[in-house]
Amino acid sequence: MKTRMKMRLKLFNDGKTVLATTRHRKTQITSIIKSVNHQSAYIYVEYLKGCFNDSYHESDESLTRALNDYTEKSLINSIVFWSKK
């Protein structure tokens, strides 16, 4: 079973939303993070209905690290494994 993750990204400047988007590819999210000027961000990664990770970030480094952690292959494989039981 291949999991199609849904990744939501919100970027903020001075407390106002600059960009809100949903993507399925990690590379698209990474590209947006690098290209859009922002002060803080919210990332939401949904693996299966009701199974997700989310967090707020003040720096691009912590946002990128969270994105990498949330999309780690071993994590996704374990979620798929446990969803079959």
The sequence of SSEs as H and E is: EEHEEHH
Name the strands of the widest sheet in spatial order. Answer: 2-1-3-4
Low-confidence stretches: none
Structural class: alpha+beta
Largest sheet: 4 strands, antiparallel
* Strands, total number: 4
Mean pLDDT: 92
Helical residue percent?
25-40%
Count of alpha and pi helical runs: 3
Overall tally of domains: 1
Shape: elongated
What is the end-to-end distance? 13 Å
Alpha-carbon Rg, integer:
13 Å
Q: What is the strand content? A: 35-45%
Task: Explain what this protein looks like in three dimensions.
The chain has 85 residues and is of the alpha+beta class. The chain has one domain (6-83). Helix content is 38%, strand content 38%. Strands 2-1-3-4 form a four-stranded antiparallel sheet. The protein is elongated, with a radius of gyration of 13 Å. The two termini are 13 Å apart. The mean pLDDT is 92.
Short description:
With 85 residues, the protein is of the alpha+beta class. Helix content is 38%, strand content 38%.
List keywords for this structure.
85 residues, four-stranded antiparallel beta sheet, 38% helix, elongated
Topology:
Elements: E1 6-13, E2 16-23, H1 26-35, E3 40-48, E4 51-57, H2 60-70, H3 73-83
Antiparallel strand pairs: 1-2, 1-3, 3-4
